[in-house]
Amino acid sequence: MIIDVCRPRDFLDRTMDRYVRLFPCLSDPARRSSSGLKVALVMLHLVYVGLLFAFDRHLIEEAVTRPWYTASYLLLVVATLIQYFLTSCSSPGYVLDAMRASNEIDIAFRKASKQPASSKNADVVVTIDRNPVGINVQGDLTSWTKMVMDMYPPGTSPRNFTCSYCHVEQPPRTKHCHDCDRCVLQFDHHCVWLGTCIGQGNHCRFWWYIFEETTLCLWTGILFISYLKADIVRAWWNAAIVIMLLITLSIALIFLLLLLLFHSYLVLTNQTTYELVRRRRIFYLRGIPERVFPFSKGVCHNLYDFCCHRSVYQLEPLPSVQALEERSRPYTCSDLLRCRCC
Description:
Helix content is 56%, strand content 6%. The chain is mainly α. It has two domains: 181 residues; 90 residues, no CATH class.
């Protein structure tokens, strides 16, 4: 008897085709992988919280005596998941979108004043055509080119800040992401778990997500430890499962805590992960000493720009030589009294 081994394969192919027809947005393998990670992360949260309430009967009894405590914990779980999806669906700030926004401002300016736009007001006329093959940018890029060139030191070759993939001029702190196939403003890194880049537009949301996730892991770990320390009769396999969950939760908590501290340091010094790791490979940062943060405006100003005064398409020019010399000067007692670090 000859067994047709191709039938299971054909069945899987037909099932995948029907699945793609029902959900066209998941036809891309990268999107399917990102969606799978999102589902896995949500299920991981539900498993930890569900097993916690399934094992710890005392926690359910506390929900009656102290409803605010249980409600606060469940509210943190929901807020963390909402923050996760908000961050994953947010835009990191793409160069092409910034050019489109500048184009809209330029059109409104020309209608109001009937004068040609200049590079000083960051206006530019750009027409963007999107097709299945790629992204074509056409139009008058003169003002955009001048605006970008004014952000770099005089004599810088346009070849150094022109993207070889998008063929557009990149402002400082911009990098082309090969996973997203776009240039990202103030590129930090591409997060696999979120399925998107972390850049100027969503770095603040990313920090808040890490903070909420760290708090949730810490709180869940405390509840697991309280369950193990409680003097109740339980099956041995219950304790074994809880101990395994607590070990994995501790590893995740250490990783999240280090990640939170690292990004807090980046926020206070106005740096990105890419600038910190690849500083010697970025041409406009090579001559700057390691201890000098060229884009830092002080701790207070950096926090304000990061949390309260952050525009999605805010472009930062390179600091002047005088500003770099001022920031490289060692701190003195008078500088601390005058709050120079702030």
